[in-house]
Amino acid sequence: MHDLTYVIDTFFALFAMVLIIFMVPGFAMLEAGLVRTKNVSAVLMMNTMIYAVASMGFLLFGYTLAFGAWGSDSMSLYAAFLFQMAFVGKVVNIMSGGISERAEILPMALFTVIMATVLYPVVVNWVWGADMLAGTFLDLSMYDLAGSTVIHSTGGWALLAAILIIGSRKGKYTKDGKIKAIPASNIPLVTLGAFLLWIGWFGFNGGSVGSIASKESADAVALTILNTNTAGLAGAIVAGLIMYARYRKLDITMILNGALGGLVAITAGPDLYNIYEPILIGGIGAVLVVLAVPFFDKIQIDDPVGALSVHLVNGIWGTLAVGLFAADGDSITLLGQLKGIVAIAIFAFVASYVVLKLINLILPLRTSEENEYDGLDLEVCGLESYPEFVNSKT
Amino acid sequence: MHDLTYVIDTFFALFAMVLIIFMVPGFAMLEAGLVRTKNVSAVLMMNTMIYAVASMGFLLFGYTLAFGAWGSDSMSLYAAFLFQMAFVGKVVNIMSGGISERAEILPMALFTVIMATVLYPVVVNWVWGADMLAGTFLDLSMYDLAGSTVIHSTGGWALLAAILIIGSRKGKYTKDGKIKAIPASNIPLVTLGAFLLWIGWFGFNGGSVGSIASKESADAVALTILNTNTAGLAGAIVAGLIMYARYRKLDITMILNGALGGLVAITAGPDLYNIYEPILIGGIGAVLVVLAVPFFDKIQIDDPVGALSVHLVNGIWGTLAVGLFAADGDSITLLGQLKGIVAIAIFAFVASYVVLKLINLILPLRTSEENEYDGLDLEVCGLESYPEFVNSKT
Amino acid sequence: MHDLTYVIDTFFALFAMVLIIFMVPGFAMLEAGLVRTKNVSAVLMMNTMIYAVASMGFLLFGYTLAFGAWGSDSMSLYAAFLFQMAFVGKVVNIMSGGISERAEILPMALFTVIMATVLYPVVVNWVWGADMLAGTFLDLSMYDLAGSTVIHSTGGWALLAAILIIGSRKGKYTKDGKIKAIPASNIPLVTLGAFLLWIGWFGFNGGSVGSIASKESADAVALTILNTNTAGLAGAIVAGLIMYARYRKLDITMILNGALGGLVAITAGPDLYNIYEPILIGGIGAVLVVLAVPFFDKIQIDDPVGALSVHLVNGIWGTLAVGLFAADGDSITLLGQLKGIVAIAIFAFVASYVVLKLINLILPLRTSEENEYDGLDLEVCGLESYPEFVNSKT
Amino acid sequence: MKKIEAVIKPFKLEDVKEALVEAGISGMTVSEVKGYGRQQGHTELYRGAEYVVDFLPKIKIDLVVNDDQVDEIIKLITDNAKTGKIGDGKIFVTNVEKAVRIRTGETDSEAV
Amino acid sequence: MKKIEAVIKPFKLEDVKEALVEAGISGMTVSEVKGYGRQQGHTELYRGAEYVVDFLPKIKIDLVVNDDQVDEIIKLITDNAKTGKIGDGKIFVTNVEKAVRIRTGETDSEAV
Amino acid sequence: MKKIEAVIKPFKLEDVKEALVEAGISGMTVSEVKGYGRQQGHTELYRGAEYVVDFLPKIKIDLVVNDDQVDEIIKLITDNAKTGKIGDGKIFVTNVEKAVRIRTGETDSEAV
Ligand SMILES: Nc1ncnc2c1ncn2[C@@H]1O[C@H](COP(=O)(O)OP(=O)(O)O)[C@@H](O)[C@H]1O
Ligand SMILES: Nc1ncnc2c1ncn2[C@@H]1O[C@H](COP(=O)(O)OP(=O)(O)O)[C@@H](O)[C@H]1O
Ligand SMILES: Nc1ncnc2c1ncn2[C@@H]1O[C@H](COP(=O)(O)OP(=O)(O)O)[C@@H](O)[C@H]1O
């Protein structure tokens, strides 16, 4: 009997891992669709290298740092590793999208390595893993099933640090402080990417339950996937309603961002809610996205893909939501959630800021003005993404 | 032991559901590729909102209406729900594609809600579910494993009703009755979408077997997926052969439509056939598509994505095929199949027609001539789908 | 108990098969992105028809030829068939990509049928299947888990034969022997395709272990998928490093080719290595790709998608690697691997060459110069792939 | 000979072409351009930020004709491209000193 | 009337347009072209093979104005399109014999 | 100075460009246009409905040269763009009154 649960949980972890890997093309397509044509290949290359470098770093060092040792009783240790590995790149993905169209590649690659092998593993160790700080006042009791804070906020804080250092794209804000919209170049790619992410999320959250091989855990997994999906649905609907109310337009990019915001928000506790609460949690997630996108623009934090609004803001909201809707007065409390949010915020932001500043001294993070105008594709990849289509560089 | 079959069937239902969700980007990419560039974002938005609104409506009301109550002994009730939920949007998808490039969004959103929460659940209740009409002369004995009639024809009849009310795209037919081809804007997207649908179909039909956790049901699932695939293969080959015979051209859009037609045709009984019959069933499906596309054009039923030919015509054919190839003289009869087809046809067409006519009184279904010329992207989403590519609006 | 392992292995085979089917759109998108816009639909049609025709041929004849008879004790025979069927098209895919932009469709369709029903099944019979040559001096002891030789080299040798017969694209090499780059038309499609292939590879290799339903086989499957992924990661990283060292450019097309090269290289023995060896095997795979692409160009073997470098070269390397890293002195030896490589090389190349030459007599493989200039889309499919985008034919 | 350059609304191209062909014109060259003028561009919205697209898509027709055809052609284009709404476009006439048909080497009025 | 054709670097279009509009120009027609000139194209790399892209993207502005505005407009364009680096582009002036506004039938200087 | 406008078949651009460059021409501007003419467009097929694409892709080369170069250039273009089949295209010559190099302000024959 034990053998079969071992088999089923291994199979399930592999299934979940495969779904998460769909998020690699998911992020790549989403971001390639959101940037201008002249930066598309650079963004695709960055996404590919992030997956490669971050996963490799996690194999060589990160996993041991996070979990102390390789090993798993309940499933194949290789499957357990693969599932965790599938998460790593996401943290850096979240960040790389937000600084695209102006960041140099080499320093970002360096940061990817540091993030994947040190910063993120430390966060995982702290919250999910070996817990090196157990017993100290920094021990965290935060509940964060699949990483609203561990993945999404961590990536978001690193992005905020990077944007503060690197600045906004040339032409995004006029001298007199007006915002110039820089539209997405390929909406079908954006949509495809968003849905690949959505599907990947079923593996992300469902797999985080850790086992499916008993009646209870099968129910927990199914509930988790149901609630994950519901939060995404609610996010899309609410974002659509707000856009329609304000502009009479059903802006598809905002609707998809709303859905992704809902998905981030549910990620901390999809197994804890009843089947209706995710409507509220995802819906509020979408409200936050719709408010945050223009807010960041107003304070001239230039984030071409909306990653801060989706991942940082909703990473925080999702972690809080667990404290609000699922506190049990014992292991899960609003205060415990808050403490976790703040502790990780400080660590992720400060560590990223310092590391990026140091890298900036040796390898400037910002590309030259000329490269930025010509587009990073030529500089970085040496090619054009759509060479046969006449296009107007802006 | 029972626990493990519960676990395995839950896992399998989740696996099947994930495959079906790939049909959401599948439909979106297929339709975004088939319409002109100026309507691409509107179509993508519509597909996204259909998934969101229809699934949410099914969660809040539709499921209870269809199945009487939540609950399942053999697997997690959440997984059972998710699998059924994954079907809902498809019915509306089938319809929305066929009226794209000229339909207003708001009335269609309203119809989506009504379809997902009332019309489709009634059909499900009737054929698969709680069966409110059991015992009356309207009780149906039709065999329809995964919905050739319940999903595809229902969506097709609703589409036919909509096209009759809404009319054809401006410029599609000249005053003297000639047909003007309006070519697809992006063939790779069409192909990608068709294959995502194809893959989703494995979950659609395979999952409809309902269980995999015994030797017999494992065989039934595997046979179902094999036969589903074979019908798609045959559809592609036959459509290719006909196009080549008639025009010396291997028109990829028709080949893909042929494959989809074969997949619709097999859907009523993929578990009932031997491994060769699907070649015939899918092949005839493709013949029907290749004949139906110009036929609908001739009678000036303007269906930009070929949904009537694929889903309605083959939904009918597939349901009939069960009666022809798999009648057992007892529970499955040709007459029983026919009765089901007709009953659902009348209900789906009349109900859709009436509801759409009523909606049309308050919110006109047809967009203004100017919006149609400029493209719905600007009107509906406020953006262009490929802003950096110079294109010629036609 | 036996029933449940039957169920689980059936489920697992279906899961693996579904992943492999993602390689159909994977190859299609990769190749559609790599060719010029004027040949995109022809390439998509070819990929679709290859899947359809090759799979159908395998259902009707090929499978019996390869395995002697239908049947499986350990899982549903339908699932066992489906898993094997999913492989077939790949062999022809590998080949069709490399001759695109100049090959006529009909003769290639004919070759597809012969390849799928005779040539490839003979190879499978020889290495994996009924083994008709058992006992003769041609009996092979090569270890090739998922087909570095059986699939990738076989397809590669057929491609080499085809390119030798068919020649290079007009304009690719100038009269004075200079190479003219013909750039890819759509880089996001290339990237999407590569990742769909990557994900499909998990099913390809993982499923080839043949069972997951015991602790040992669950470990073997998980290790296989882990090692498969690691080789891809290493391939991407090493290709990136070399391109940067040589040109200061991180050419995304080469990075993706490097990853695919690594994946091909690991395919012969992903279950035999420890978790670090794949880094070396995949890394060397990428080195070989980066060297082979310009090498083939230099000797004027024109391969638009780099299939020879990825599949043929690394198919050989991967099979050798098993002899180098995993020889056990008994059933697996370097010599045994070599013998397998050479035997299949001779058979695949000679048989393909002869068959293609014969076909060439009746139906010329090469399209007319005018069709080549205008693009195959018009000739073959009768349509344009992106009709609304102004583009410059080159 | 004269070159007539007409900038028109894209959806009028089909009508204008038909009219020109009926009038016996045997050739023309068309390009996609963007026009700035009295006709105001539309406002687009991108993730909550509105912006004005002030260059509108137009079609430019280049047509070389004999001097005596100019007025007739101008009338034809005007009649068929007019909607009466702002943005209908302009016609400009310039002098062509020489015309050559590449295929045959014919020149001037034989070339067009 | 004269037609001013200016071939400029694409990223200067915005500046030039603003300057023209401020100077009271009410219309212009813009197209995307590729330029060959002293400015060398860049080298691209495709899977290890380098190649030169020698046609560079440029923007062509067509502007019909009254004779007396020509010099002022040329100066305006020159000032706003200049970067001082090779490839800034050219301005050509040709004579326009007739202009018509399609919407109203107005001609010549009333038409532009 | 004269402006030479040549409408040619796209696949001849490379040959024409090479010939012009060899002849010492230092600049030209190229655009993608669609041509209607004696050359019949091809028939396309879309899901069983056939339709004619009657505008064919062409390339337009704009080239401003000194008066004395015109004939030589016309010959060069004619020789290199000719296939002898219908649709080879046309060359039109117009007068340019003024030319300015934006970078330096040089005018007329120094500007081209
Ligand atoms: N002075 C000009 N020079 C060149 N093109 C012009 C000029 N004025 C207008 N155009 C072109 O004509 C188009 C229509 O002009 P507009 O002022 O919008 O309306 P109308 O044609 O009704 O006067 C513009 O979009 C532009 O392409
Ligand atoms: N003789 C010419 N006729 C037409 N266009 C020209 C001519 N010479 C240059 N151009 C255009 O002007 C652009 C800039 O010319 P170039 O020689 O590169 O630099 P500069 O303008 O600084 O002299 C070219 O890209 C081309 O579009
Ligand atoms: N009167 C004209 N004015 C402007 N362009 C023309 C004219 N006649 C032909 N053209 C251009 O020349 C191209 C070739 O003309 P066509 O009549 O097809 O063949 P040919 O050049 O052999 O006479 C056309 O596609 C069109 O772009």
Quick tags:
heterohexamer; A: 394 residues; mainly alpha; Ammonium transporter fold; D: 112 residues; alpha+beta; four-stranded antiparallel sheet; 2 helices; 41% strand; elongated; binds adenosine-5'-diphosphate
Description:
The complex is a heterohexamer, with three copies of chain A (394 residues) and three copies of chain D (112 residues). Chain A has helices spanning 2-21, 23-34, 40-67, 77-98, 105-127, 148-166, 187-208, 215-247, 252-266, 277-298, 307-325, 334-362, 369-374, 376-381. With 394 residues, chain A is mainly alpha-helical. Chain A has one domain (2-381): Ammonium transporter AmtB like domains (Ammonium transporter fold). Chain D is of the alpha+beta class. Chain D is 20% helix and 41% strand. Chain D has helices at 13-22, 70-81, and strands spanning 2-8, 28-36, 42-46, 49-53, 56-65, 90-95, 98-101. The mean pLDDT of chain D is 90. Chains A and C meet through helix 1, helix 2, helix 3 and helix 4 of A and helix 1, helix 7, helix 8 and helix 9 of C. One adenosine-5'-diphosphate sits between chains F (7, 35-39, 56, 58, 86-90) and D (27-29, 62-64, 101-103, 112).
Strand order of the largest sheet of chain D: 2-5-1-6
Beta strands of chain A, count: 0
Which ranges of chain A are low-confidence, i.e. pLDDT below 50, for 5 or more consecutive residues? none
Largest sheet of chain D: 4 strands, antiparallel
CATH superfamily (homologous) name of chain A? Ammonium transporter AmtB like domains
* N to C succession of SSEs of chain D: EHEEEEHEE
Secondary-structure content class of chain A: mainly alpha
Count the beta strands of chain D.
7
Low-confidence stretches of chain D: none
Q: What is the overall number of helices of chain A?
A: 14
Mean pLDDT of chain A: 93
- CATH class designation of chain A: Mainly Alpha
| CATH topology (fold) name of chain A | Ammonium transporter fold
- The helix fraction of chain A, in percent, is over 70%
Mean pLDDT of chain D: 90
